[in-house]
Design a protein that fits this description.
With about 280 residues, the protein is of the alpha/beta class. Strand 2, helix 2 and strand 3 form a beta-alpha-beta unit. The structure holds NADP nicotinamide-adenine-dinucleotide phosphate (NAP). The site of NADP nicotinamide-adenine-dinucleotide phosphate (NAP) has 26 residues, from helix 10.
């Protein structure tokens, strides 16, 4: 039997409708949620991501500001720009598009963003708050994964979740969120011996390695929920995930496609975090 498809596009659309309604309410109270995105250099992929973020912001009636800086920008100048945005009343969320030029210390830049405006959820204060299950800005991709699972009514408590990947942006926070929801979590990474032994035991398998076709049918338990975070290009230049969709769909209970799975959720959760930041700014007045 073929797996049920988890339609990220549709789940994201519904979530965006709810965000849109809340944005309209806030605007009626005189506050327009505002997101500032800083783009450094001329990385084509980064530009595409930034354009999509701006488009979604505008679609939902939020204010979006783009600050474009050259590859040669100094760390000091970048810090100065962020400090200005930290003080701005019209900007509630600040996002610095990664990767940064190699001469810039990414850690210093992330730590310059006010934790109250850190809509990517990368600041150590937000990471610490998430680790201790306090209210925090949650990194968008892991937050999107949880939102998707909740929208299909998946049980997480007591389940065995295997996360492939341990990056600070996806793998690590994803595992932590599952742990916060009472799952038993196993992390796998590039040094894991016998990956299959772990993935085969997953009730929920999250693949975030960035390796096309890493997960084949013999990695997956019958009926498992398979979340494919990977965004890779195959030999024909087509976008694909980490999961061999055509074979795994016959084994899994649920599966996310690429494209149209986790991707639309990520951008939607950025809008969710920006709205949350705008609401937070009102609560302080
Ligand atoms: P990353 O920083 O490169 O991390 C990849 C992780 O996968 C690392 O922890 C690495 O292990 C592990 N890994 C690599 N090869 C492996 C293998 N053969 N077996 C097991 N583990 C392996 O990447 P990322 O930023 O987390 O992103 C992961 C993927 O998700 C990428 O394809 C990225 O484009 C995609 N992504 C998608 C979205 C979305 O919205 N859909 C958002 C963000 C990222 P080590 O730690 O040992 O090196």
């Amino acid at each position: 039997m073929a797996a049920e498809l988890i339609d990220g596009k549709e789940i994201a659309r519904k979530k965006q409708d709810r965000i849109d309604a809340e944005v309209q309410k806030l605007k009626a109270e005189g506050v327009t949620p505002g997101l500032a995105v800083i783009l450094t250099g001329d990385n084509q992929a980064s530009r595409t991501y930034v354009n999509n973020k701006q488009k979604t912001c505008n679609k939902l009636g939020m204010y979006s500001m783009l600050i474009e800086l050259p590859e040669s920008v100094s760390e000091q100048e970048l810090i100065r720009r962020i400090t200005e945005l930290n003080k701005s009343d019209e900007i509630h969320g600040i996002l610095v598009q990664l990767p940064l030029p190699s001469h810039i210390n990414e850690k210093a830049i992330i730590e310059t963003i006010s934790p109250e405006k850190d809509v990517d959820g990368f600041h150590p204060i937000n990471i610490g708050r998430m680790m201790t299950a306090q209210d925090a800005y949650i990194p968008c991709t892991p937050a999107g994964i949880i939102e998707m699972l909740e929208s299909i009514g998946a049980d997480i408590a007591g389940k065995h979740v295997v996360v492939i990947g341990r990056s600070n942006i996806v793998g690590k926070p994803a595992g932590q969120l599952f742990l916060n929801k009472d799952a038993t979590v196993t992390y796998c990474h590039s040094k894991t011996a016998n990956l299959k032994e772990y993935t085969k035991r997953a009730d929920i398998l999250v693949a975030a390695a960035g390796k096309a076709n890493l997960i084949t049918e013999d990695h997956v338990k019958h009926g498992a929920i398979v979340i494919d975070v990977g965004m890779n290009r195959n030999a024909e230049g087509k976008l694909c995930g980490d999961v061999d969709f055509e074979t795994v769909k016959h084994i899994a209970g649920y599966i996310t496609p690429v494209p149209g799975g986790v991707g639309p959720m990520t951008i939607t959760m950025l809008m969710h975090n920006t709205l949350k930041a705008a609401k937070y700014s009102i609560s302080k007045i």
